[in-house]
Amino acid sequence: MTTDRRLALTAGLLYLATFATSFPGLALRTAFFDGDAAPATAGSAALVELLLAAACVGTALALFPIARRVSLPLALGFVVSRTLEAAMIMTGVLALLATAAVRAAGGGDDALVALHDASFLVGPAFMSATNALLLGSVMFRGRLVPRVIPLIGLIGAPLLLASSIGVLFGAWTQTSAVGAIAAVPVALWELALGVWLTVRGVAPGIPRPADHGPRGISPASDDRHGMTRGT
After folding, report:
1. Residue 108 contacts by C-beta under 8 Å, 6 or more apart in sequence?
2. Fewest CB within 10 angstroms: 62, 142, 196, 220, which?
3. pLDDT in tens, 41-70
4. Could you tell me the CA-to-CA distances from 173 to 51, 104, 165, 198 in Å, in that order?
5. pLDDT score for 224
6. Prediction pTM value
């Protein structure tokens, strides 16, 4: 198995792990904040969210060595964006655990719930759309996977951004029908990417930095034009 295949497999499995943790995490959080679950549910939700945050960062680290050969700025941007998404998830975890502690003490938790909702908007909404724009551009430009897969993300990202802005200004809620529908394309892009990377990997023949000279001309190309080092 080549290095690229191992990296793609790792990234694919981690993308699938984000799905395996995000939906249960959402269900557990919702049940806790709605008061329909036992206080221990907060701990379960926090654990699942921690795994989600780790998987988010892992996808970026696994794909960076591949993505940088297509576009270093986009690859770096994806790592930063994915890390910020994980940071927002962690902020939500802190708010969740703090809410559980305040409720146990009989105090008010409105501010903590609001903090959690804000982190959920910035992380899984705004940052997920940004991730789709950055990584989708890399995958599309580099033809690393069938172009229809990143195209779904590139189309869905503006929809999710627009929906998130609507949530920000109170037009609708993030869990409303509008918010849910707007999130579908980006979710589909991440699922399709995870499955493809796991099963097939990335397209072979991605140029490596060592394959090119200082002006992007390969040594073989230099020789064909009669240019040799040391002359």
Report:
1. 102
2. 220
3. 999 999 999 999 999 999 999 999 999 999
4. 26, 28, 10, 34
5. 34
6. 0.84
